[in-house]
Design goal:
heterodimer, A: Rossmann fold, 2 domains, 4-stranded antiparallel β-sheet, 10 helices, globular, B: 302 residues, 2 strands
């Protein structure tokens, strides 16, 4: 599904990603962890064309996407959320979800001009269903900027999901949430996971990742230091060193 | 109707075009200090078409508007890719360039023994179509408002359309909008072209009302005012910039007791609003509230 080969990005003299190799099979949920500044969000930004890669290649479903523009990558079936929430705060909750539908291919253009586009009706219906799924139906007509943080995170997820992406990138979906809110978000992500959807989830809260991910990858200083099943990865000496600053023996 | 009132209303109508033009660019998040350039280009182009080439008024209006649109695209293509204030500075520079070019632009032909056409800094006199066709000031005011109504109808349709939603998305967060699979530069170009056409329509109407255009009218203050109209009236609806124009021309300039202090009051008003209501009186939140209330009232049981 996703193959990353020797991906490197540097900002000035700082290497955010240093020759990263990663392969994610279709339908897998991959947890991406690492200390702050390890390159996790930079990887999302490069994958979605926000930053160009200095070196390396990215393949999505066999097609090379390195060098493609953000909008092109999104049209290939990639959607994401942001660590620092990004919503259209001056627009309603419903319009935020609809925002992701505006670039979907239009096969009824002429009817659309007459205001009778059956596709639009279906899409509005899909947006309503998505709000129902994410528990935001009652807030549909509110301005997004006025929602509390957990609902704003849900709205970001709803917007990312409405295009039915093949690859979904979630950047700290439970960031800033209480344990109860985190648990509710975990339930929601479980609900939207499906065998034909690949997900990469950046998260510091292990209670969210441990149940959700089939695989886990750990970055440190832009390099992959461990990859595999979550339990094995979390016991890896290099991971403990990176997170706790010590080796498992306590030395 | 009182001739003074007709004159004030005609001025409000004409300035509404350039205010709407700047507003459209504000919608996509771009600050233009130079919409007066397209207003000027169209004033000259339409004046040349009707006064020198003998074209009918409507054709001159369309011709001038299109000229405004094409010029806007030519400015936008190299500048919209730049981030930050570069676009604003480029529009300002372009507008000044246009004004200075008109200071030296001479193109005259002899009609009935008289030289007609732009004559550099002397301006372009004798755009006398409305006198030749015996159109009264009141009738011409109606023409201005008929064209303005068409433009406003276009804005109302735009606000309800996918294109309008995309414009607002780009204005709020261009990167996020690219993340929705949309080519923001292409949409900004479209907005710039539409804004050029709208400013152009105003310019053409102005040239035929004033019968005389000179380069100094199209100075940077006209651009700053047109930008401020949207920021005062509000960016939540196309009626916002009209409120801005009405406050400035209809109140500050026309009420004689305060007209001498117009610029002081206007500048103060902009400063206060930028602090207390940065997106104007009718901002998005206000428009959203009005719409919700309207829906509640409409659907309330009798």
């Amino acid at each position: 599904m996703l193959r990353i080969e020797k991906l490197s990005v540097a900002f000035g003299g700082v290497e955010a990603l240093a020759g990263l190799d990663l392969e994610v099979q279709a339908g897998t949920v991959l947890g991406l962890i690492g200390p702050n500044g390890s390159g996790k969000t930079t990887l999302f930004n490069v994958l979605t064309g926000v930053y160009p890669a200095d070196r390396g290649r990215i393949y999505l479903g066999g097609k090379e996407i390195s060098g493609c523009k953000t909008e092109q990558i999104v049209r290939l079936g990639v959607a994401r959320t942001f660590q620092n929430l990004r919503l259209y705060k001056r627009m309603t909750v419903f319009d935020n979800v609809r925002a992701a539908q505006h670039s979907l291919p239009d096969t009824h253009f002429a009817q659309g001009l007459l205001g009778r586009n059956p596709q639009e009706k279906q899409r509005r219906q899909a947006a309503r269903q998505m709000l129902e799924l994410t528990g935001l139906s009652e807030q549909a007509d509110q301005l997004a900027g006025g929602l509390p943080l957990p609902q704003q995170r849900r709205l970001e997820l709803a917007r990312a999901l409405i295009r039915q992406p093949d690859l979904l990138l979630l950047d700290e979906p439970a960031g800033g949430m209480t344990p109860a809110e985190t648990s509710a978000m975990a339930d929601l992500i479980h609900k939207v996971a499906s065998p034909d959807r690949t997900m990469i989830v950046i998260e510091h809260k292990m209670e969210l990742l441990s149940d959700l991910c089939q695989r886990m990858c750990v970055l440190n200083f832009g390099r992959k230091i461990a990859e595999g099943e979550p339990r094995q990865v979390l016991e890896h000496p290099d991971v403990l060193e990176a997170y706790l600053g010590r080796s498992p023996s306590g030395a | 109707m009182d001739t003074y009132l007709i004159s004030v209303l005609s001025n409000i109508g004409m300035l509404a075009f350039i205010a709407l033009s700047a507003y459209l660019l504000l919608l996509v998040g771009e600050i233009s200090f130079g919409q007066q350039a397209f207003f000027a280009i169209s004033a000259y182009a339409s004046g040349i078409a009707t006064a020198m080439w003998g074209w009918p008024f409507w054709l001159g209006l369309v011709w001038g508007s299109l000229f405004g649109g094409v010029a806007a695209v030519l400015v936008a293509v190299p500048t919209l890719r730049l981030r930050g204030l570069y676009f604003s500075i480029a529009t300002l520079a372009f507008a000044e360039m246009v004004r200075l070019l008109f200071e030296i632009f001479t193109y005259q032909v002899e009609i009935d023994g008289e030289l007609v056409g732009p004559d550099g800094s002397e301006g372009f006199r004798d755009i006398r179509l409305i006198y030749e066709q015996d159109i009264s000031a009141f009738e011409y005011m109606c023409i201005i408002y008929a064209v303005l109504a068409l433009v406003l109808a276009g804005f109302i349709l735009l606000e309800r359309s996918r294109l309008g939603a995309i414009f607002r998305m780009i204005g709020e967060d261009p990167m996020l909008t690219e993340m929705q699979g949309l080519n923001t530069i292409a949409y900004k170009l479209l907005a710039a072209a539409m804004a050029g056409v709208i400013a152009g329509a105003g310019g053409a109407l102005y040239a035929h009302l004033a019968t005389y255009v000179e380069p100094k009218i199209f100075n940077v203050m006209l651009g700053v005012h047109s930008l401020a109209y949207g920021l005062i009236g509000g960016l939540g609806t196309a009626f916002g910039p009209l409120i801005g124009v009405a406050i400035d021309i209809g109140f500050l300039e026309s009420v004689r007791a305060i007209s001498g202090y117009r610029m002081i009051v206007f500048g103060g008003l902009v400063a206060v609003l930028l602090i207390v209501r940065p997106r104007g009186i009718l901002d998005e939140a206000a428009v959203h509230w009005i719409r919700r209330r309207w829906r509640q009232v409409r659907h309330a049981p009798d």
